[in-house]
Amino acid sequence: MIKFDNVSVSFSNKKGQLVNAVKNVSFDIEDGEILGIVGTSGAGKSTLLRTVNQLQLPTGGKTVVNGVDVGGLSGGDLARFRHSIGMIFQQFNLVSTKTVAQNVAFAMEIAGRSRDEINRRVPELLDLVGLADRADVYPNTLSGGQKQRVGIARAVANNPKILLCDEATSALDPETTNDVLRLLKEINAKFGITIVLITHEFDVVKKICQRVAVMDKGELVEIGDVFDVFSKPQHDFTKTLLSHTFDLDVPERLTLDDAKPLVKIIYNGEKAEDAIVANVVRNYGVDVNILHGKIEYINDKPFGILIVQLIGTKDNLDNSLDYLSKNTYRTEVLNERN
Amino acid sequence: MNETNYSDLFDNLLPAFGETLEMCGIALLLAVLLGVPLGVLSYITAQRSICQNKLVNLVVGFFINVVMSTPFVILLVLLLPFTRFVVGTSIGPEAASVPLGIVAIAFYARLVEGNLHAVDKGVIEASLAMGATWFRIVTNVLLPGAFSGMIRGLTVLAVTLVGYSAMAGIVGGGGVGDLAIRFGYYRYQTDVMLITVLLLIALVQVIQTIGEKASRKVQK
Predict the structure, then answer these.
(1) Considering its fold, how many domains does chain A have in total?
(2) Per the CB 3.0–4.6 Å rule, which of A28, A296, B62, B144 could disulfide with A97?
(3) How far away is chain B from the Cα of A211, in angstroms, using its nearest Cα?
(4) Residue B145, pLDDT score
(5) ipTM over 0.90
(6) Domain end position, chosen among A243, A266, A288
């Protein structure tokens, strides 16, 4: 288990000003989970992540991994501790003068594994990430996605308990991102490795994380189940972060027509699969005009947003709005009704 | 202008060429043997580097700066006692190799340090994250990564040394450059000067070509 206990990190930047990159952050990461830390750049998420393997020392509080205060480690203890934590990076950070196989072997050499073991395990690892045929090429001949796969093979070479991902997909195109995320998910399921992933894209979190921590200006503003945070963001910053998913734009002329209520229906879980809209039409005799909508699947749970215009008599409209607010996750009327 | 005795000139030219190669060769060897470790030391002990040590960094930096900022002719004379202590004599090409070697070490240390700085910091961070020691990072990441640049640096150094070696005449070091000064300049034998300079140009060209080929070959 990783425990951030009131962690703060401050350092002076090049201009000599004191920067408080991380401010009093406390939360736990459970064994075997995939946790995402999201925030805009400069939110301190990268700095916080680096306290897990002491690439960054906290200036206040402590980061505790499986009962060990990471900040207290040095020398051989720190080296051994780091062997049990893999890390992948946005820019992949492969050794350009080593081949793919040598890059993976490097991690095992550092951990003091025997030649025999290395020779046996490296092909297995390359097989795992689907690069068995590229063992002897140099990284500069690989695509971004392939480089990250090598990075992953290298990071899990010593059977770590924890895998840290520092914007691991930010330099990749959407399709390659999905491939890499799938691979991470597979590794998590197969080996039970705890994955801590930082990203500025909520989409990445949505795809593989079980829980998410939201950071803004060095502070932890929200943490919880991805589905909950996504469907019910508590903090303004989280709402802003999610706005591109929630703000389905409809033309202004529609919101101005206040005789016909414009309703945003958010539904989740099992109810997303019920025929709620059809019920409204059938039971209350209103016409429903669908203007916009989308459904997201987070951890296989559906989460939908629909913008509809209701047309009918006042009573019928009131009844249907009442039904909607009772039977959906959230119902909002977007235009003022008189 | 004196008459040039060409057979006399060529009798002098060949040994002088040998002396130039000897002086520069020894200095280059010293630069590789000691300049590389010194450059690495300067890099790794710098602030926020992988083996931070303020004192060592300061001392190394001071040594390099002193050697590089002292005019070579002055260094040649200043180092005479040290030279006598090391090689037992203060005249001849071996004696000239000592100050030349010291300059080469300092100069190359700076060049190596510069090349190390060009190695991707992210890869160093990744190595640290894997639990690598500074020594392993130096041998597996830094030096291989800087290798091509270091060869190019060695070329620059060799060419510079050929120029510096002309001043070795002051301690009787000999060499082609010295020949050019003594015969061509002091004796007003312009043709001798021309021949020796052409020879030096040819030598520099050969060094440059070999250096670039080698550097390109090792680049990944």
Answers:
(1) 2
(2) B144
(3) 25
(4) 95
(5) no
(6) A243
